[in-house]
């Protein structure tokens, strides 16, 4: 399960800047990630497999073309195993997490341990070192990892590029992932937007982090 989440995180990390403008100035204060100025997106997630089932919701808020972004996720997972006596045993866990992007800085909120992990966005550094803009860096990374564009489909009326990479398919609208389907190790995870509001006013209060200590790490 952890590997699946890791693969999803990698793909999302790349896809969210696929449609950035080529004229982005890496020295400017705001790093443009989407071709949509602001938005609020609600996602529903389902997890199914021979030994795992679950569900979740996520709310995503962004401003300044994605230079400022915050997401909150709540999920429940049930793992079922057969013990030595042949009896099924189920364990359910509930978790809440949050993830923030503020230009070049990444924040991952660990509510269980009351700590916020921070990191500089590694792709921005890659762009600077190789003299690439966001579009070039993202597509170069996608292709180098074996990513392939599979076509175009609509999600909630929005025309999305469909990309396949590492066992994951994603539907991307102007740099923003509206749907992801993962099939790996017998587990299927479907995350899909069920409500989308673009070009709306988004209050700065949505981007406030909890009052937890910060810890800078090299690998989120």
Describe this entry's structure for a reader.
- This protein is α+β, with helices and mostly antiparallel strands.
- The chain contains three helices and twelve strands; from the N terminus they run αββββββααββββββ.
- It has helices at 2-15, 122-129, 134-144, and strands at residues 39-48, 52-63, 68-82, 88-102, 105-110, 115-120, 148-155, 158-165, 168-173, 176-184, 187-198, 214-216.
- A twelve-stranded mixed sheet has the order 7-8-9-10-11-1-2-3-4-5-6-12.
- Strand 1 and strand 2 (52-63) form a beta hairpin.
- Helix 2 packs across helix 3.
- The chain is globular.
- Residues 1-27 have low confidence and may be disordered.
Biggest β-sheet strands, sense, barrel: 12 strands, mixed
Work out the radius of gyration. 18 Å
Q: Residue-averaged pLDDT, rounded?
A: 83
Shape: globular
Number of strands: 12
Strand order within the widest beta sheet: 7-8-9-10-11-1-2-3-4-5-6-12
N-to-C span = 16 Å
Structural class: alpha+beta
Summarize the structure.
The chain has 220 residues and is α+β, with helices and mostly antiparallel strands. It has 3 helices and 12 strands, in the order H-E-E-E-E-E-E-H-H-E-E-E-E-E-E.
Topology:
Blueprint: H1 2-15, E1 39-48, E2 52-63, E3 68-82, E4 88-102, E5 105-110, E6 115-120, H2 122-129, H3 134-144, E7 148-155, E8 158-165, E9 168-173, E10 176-184, E11 187-198, E12 214-216
Parallel strand pairs: 6-12
Antiparallel strand pairs: 1-2, 1-11, 2-3, 3-4, 4-5, 5-6, 7-8, 8-9, 9-10, 10-11
Helix pairs in contact: 2-3
């Amino acid at each position: 399960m952890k590997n699946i989440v890791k693969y999803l995180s990698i793909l999302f990390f790349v896809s969210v800047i696929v449609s950035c403008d080529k004229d982005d100035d890496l020295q400017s204060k705001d790093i443009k990630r989407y071709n949509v100025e602001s938005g609020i997106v609600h996602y529903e997630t389902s997890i199914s497999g021979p030994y795992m089932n679950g569900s979740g919701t996520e709310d995503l808020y962004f401003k300044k073309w994605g230079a400022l972004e915050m997401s909150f996720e709540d999920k429940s997972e049930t793992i079922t195993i057969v013990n030595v006596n042949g009896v099924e045993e189920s364990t359910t866990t509930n978790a809440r997490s949050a993830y923030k992007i503020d230009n070049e800085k990444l924040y991952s909120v660990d509510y269980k341990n009351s700590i916020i992990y921070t990191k500089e966005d590694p792709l921005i550094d890659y762009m600077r070192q190789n003299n690439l803009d966001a579009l070039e860096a993202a597509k170069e990374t996608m292709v180098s990892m074996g990513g392939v564009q599979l076509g175009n489909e609509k999600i909630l009326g929005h025309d999305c590029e469909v990309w396949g990479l590492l066992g994951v398919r994603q539907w991307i609208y102007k740099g923003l992932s509206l749907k992801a389907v993962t099939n790996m190790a017998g587990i299927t995870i479907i995350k899909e937007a069920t409500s989308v509001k673009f070009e709306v006013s988004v209050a700065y209060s949505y981007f406030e982090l909890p009052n937890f200590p910060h810890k800078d790490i090299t690998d989120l």
